[in-house]
Design goal:
The chain contains three helices and no strands. The protein has about 60 residues and is mostly helical. The relative contact order is 0.07.
Length: about 60
């Protein structure tokens, strides 16, 4: 496990939830700086990717019911 600035590396392995919170902090901060369109594009893309992924699984017969 590598240490990053702002993460207490001595305790990171013991507290995965805190480590994950540190990883989530930078995208949350980046999203705050975007305007409405900047936030909408990733949301739209996520929905499209979900639909495409579901379509591939259904075509392969691996979709969960």
């Amino acid at each position: 496990m590598s240490c990053r600035q702002g993460v207490d590396c001595g305790n990171a392995a013991q507290t995965p939830a805190r480590d994950m919170a540190g990883r989530d902090a930078w995208p949350a901060g980046a999203l705050k700086s975007l305007g409405e369109t900047g936030r909408g594009v990733p949301a739209l893309t996520a929905g499209l990717m979900e639909r495409l992924g579901s379509g591939w699984l259904e075509a392969d017969g691996r979709a969960e019911t």
